[in-house]
């Protein structure tokens, strides 16, 4: 085994742990190297944009749908995490909470906790003052929950707040936007990262709303913004001015701009039509009419709209799904007659809790009077028993039987396109899952089916889970979270052995199935964002084949037909290269609200004419929302020329590869110096390490590690962390180190071949600058005996060579000390120059903000002047009016003129106040930038390279 010295170990430990400026590729390298993500240059570029200024209050990342804003935000979050800035809040739609938790855990190795009413109230009962005060875990919650807990959220000094689907807050400037207003107050002064593909949908004021969430000191008030940027004659000038104001905060990349790096495949749709049996249609009509009743005793009144929506979904899923739910309704009514209040069991519908979370306020409910209601309850109970008996008698579902031919057709098409014979079947009901399992098992698919739902308590899943744990008991794969590990076990089984995955919405969250290219929407959600999420499990980065999407349609149901037309033609979800565009998906605001709108049509329309009329209205509304004028404005204000983007991304790609390669080399060298050996045949990134009778293979490339069953080598691995601590605390007296280049064929360095027997002295210092944050720089000072100049890259290379300590260090020379001082001074000057740039950017922002406020004051004065002029005109033309009336008019004009005089006097005072406020803000910036520098000497060695 080759030998290395403590000086080399410390050198690479310093490089690995150095707190570089976070806005540089090298600063991000540590975070990037330790994540399980295929990084694309636009994602790194976006993360650097969000991190670029330590003074910034945040950024808006507005990449088109499908470009990985989650990855971009994850990189920013990982960078904060690595800097020990771990007060991080994630505000996301309720439906995406689990997906975010999974992504953070599996891709970024960062633990998180979903905070919701249940565990929040439990924490309060256990005496916690503020359940948001969580250490070393990212806090994830929904918009409504964060808004309701405004005081608790405001009380935490968050290092970073990430808001996904931030377009939900774009109308915050409107007085009625309660959720947005609360969140803006709660997050004021905190650094924020907003994510949305649709920052501008209907009105330029939406940009004002989103930017005001990030930073209150960008634009003046809403009225001034409207006058300056909305009510204008020259849109081209307006767009250019807005672009300049927004370029520090907003970044947007389009899918067409990244096709060099991201390979997109197409979606191909297959429609499977079916006709329900007479009994199925009778059951549908019975339950539909029941749900339209004026009063329903079986449903909790405060949640009737929501539960009706769920029941309609289950009714459309299968007779088995609605049968079990009818039984739950019956049990609830039977309990009522006995004076027992039973919970309605809706566990069959996996996402019911999320729907509840999205519901801002409960509907009004009337107090119950059992004696008064007994007759109505009894009548309703008899009706439900009749429906239940009918449902129980239905054993044949037309849609299910059609699944067999749909699968056959789908597999044929997929295999023709080069895909594997694998299919994901999505349903909205767990009972339908069971029915499909039995149906498919009886028709040739036995033993090739796996399940995914919210619990996975079935026997097949339990067996798969046990086998998976046994396979991975020693390789570090098991996380300890049953939910996450169960999902991983099922996906692995589906990838390696099974042919069909039957999943509820739980399967649409946080899993990657790009090895499968056939999706069957057995039940079709009404929420287009849900459908996009489903298809996105397979139609995503890494998918090599065109994706076939099979949808089912009941041709006898007029509402079903119109819903499908809407999803297919208006939202364009099922075909094409990219799926639905951001303009279209963003037009629906919250998907749950859109679902409720469609549910209302099913609920309230009793004949085909009413259904067609209501869907025509809905389609017309959507057309108005997909505003071509706003699309053009967004392109002018937020998008850059393709050539400009291409050049920037090319530079970012090269810098990212170089930065990652450099960091990976440091980590590998550090690992080798602790006894790891490259795997034979020589592999640059795989290492065998044995300790205390246990051996393992480590791999710095995560994909290869997964493929070969290796442990992914990361800086945060406990073993590496232990060695880093030891290296940083080991004493380093001066020494002479001999590096062996001649006998190290795998380390051939051309510079050393042209400069044989190089000798000299190396001094290593660390400059720490603490201001708004902390950044560190290594200062290399090398003086050679023959005067050869040696740069940092050559030091990196020769520090990799096997070496031995052969004696004490030569005394430091005046030349070395002078060169060291100059190096430190040069670095301090560069830091100052960079800080000056940040300072000037912030000053420019604040100056523009102040000018906006002054413009608002001038506007008020001008408007008052116009009012006086108009009243004088009326007065002059009113000579035929009675004297008393004219005197009143004149008095009114005089009062307005007095008010104008007062406003003119106050104008200068208020402008001075604005300037003073501006100066105060700039003073705050100065104090944040007025940091301190400290130089720490790490080591001095004499060296000879033989």
In short:
With 946 residues, the chain is of the alpha/beta class. It folds into three domains: 38-257, Rossmann fold (3-Layer(aba) Sandwich); 263-448 and 499-625, Rossmann fold (3-Layer(aba) Sandwich), CATH 3.40.50; 731-946, no CATH class.
Structure notes:
- By secondary structure, the protein is of the alpha/beta class.
- It has three domains: 38-257, Tandem AAA-ATPase domain (Rossmann fold); 263-448 and 499-625, P-loop containing nucleotide triphosphate hydrolases (Rossmann fold), CATH 3.40.50; 731-946, no CATH class.
- It has 34 helices and 22 strands.
- Strands 3-4-2-5-6-1-7 form a seven-stranded parallel sheet, sandwiched between helices. The protein has a six-stranded parallel sheet with strand order 8-13-12-9-11-10, with helices on both faces. A five-stranded mixed sheet has the order 20-19-22-18-21, with helices on both faces.
- Strand 5 (160-163), helix 9 (178-186) and strand 6 (192-195) form a beta-alpha-beta unit.
- Helix 20 (459-471) packs across helix 21.
- The longest helix has 63 residues, at 814-876.
